[in-house]
Structure formats: C-alpha cells, structure tokens
Write a structure and sequence with these properties.
Elements (H helix, E strand, L loop, with lengths): L1 H13 L6 H12 L6 H8 L8 H13 L4 E5 L2 E6 L6 E5 L5 E4 L5 H11 L9 E4 L2 H8 L1
Parallel strand pairs: 3-5
Antiparallel strand pairs: 1-2, 3-4
Helix pairs in contact: 1-2, 2-3, 2-4, 3-4
Length: 144
C-alpha cells in the first residue's frame, strides 16, 4: 500500500494538486479500504482526527482524486456513490441484501467491447460490469 500511496502522491504533484493533511488522510483511507466506502463512511472514519473537516470537504477532495485519475466513483441508482482507489481492471460483485461490494478479476472483456462498437457504432471508451447476488455472510444468515 505504501508504494501505491507514493505513486498517487507523485501523480497529484504532477497535476499541481496541493497535498493537504485531509487529502492525504482521505487518499490513505481509500487505498487501505477494501469496502468501497461512501463519502459519509470516509468522513465518519476521519472526523476524530480532523474535527474541522466537513462531509463537503470529503466530497470535494474525492472529486479532485477522480479528476486526477486516482479514484473511481461507483454509482448505484439512488444510493450513495461508493469510491474505489483500485484503478486496475477489475469488476464488482454486489450483495442484494447488505450492499457489500467485492472485487473480482476476469480476463478483459474485449469481445464485448468490440460487439458493442459494431452493433451501436459507438467508439467504446470503457465499461463497468457488476454481478449481483447474495454475499456469503447474508446467505448464511438467511439459512437459519
């Protein structure tokens, strides 16, 4: 994680983004988190260290990170956006019961991109794929 943080800090420096203690804490939290937190989750986790930081500060900094290509925003209909600092090609499994999001890897879906381009005429610039179901913890609790 330390190497990933150093790379992110270097990238921010090249884009002219000033590194504040709050930005450092938010970015570190995201890089350490495997839970795909919401902005509120991040705020609640950091508010004891930064009592003057607001939820708006968290959102504004997340926007900076998204624009810098360091963080991906995951939107799911009406629910709060979730944030992911893992910018590698990977996909998400989402629990219908508790909302947990887990990462998984799969060979790149280039055939799907090509079919989409051919059938729609779009120049495909990216895609997002999720699978939905019930996580192991929720499946176990519904057995009882």
């Amino acid at each position: 994680m330390a190497a990933q943080l150093e790379q992110a800090l270097a990238k921010l420096k090249t884009t002219g983004v000033r590194m504040t203690p709050q930005r450092h804490a938010i970015l570190s939290y995201l890089l350490d988190s495997m839970t795909h937190p919401t902005a509120d989750d991040i705020y609640r986790s950091l508010e004891s260290k930064f009592p003057n930081m607001s939820v708006a500060t968290v959102y504004n900094n997340l926007k900076v990170f998204i624009e810098s290509g360091l963080v991906r925003e995951l939107t799911y209909g009406d629910s709060s956006s979730r944030f992911d600092a893992d910018m590698t090609d990977h996909y998400h499994a989402v629990c219908d019961v508790c909302g947990k999001i887990s990462d998984f890897e799969f060979p790149r879906l280039s055939d799907m991109e090509q079919a989409a381009a051919e059938q729609t005429g779009f120049r495909v610039g990216g895609y997002r794929m999720e699978v939905y179901g019930t996580c192991p913890a929720c499946a176990e609790s519904t057995k009882h």
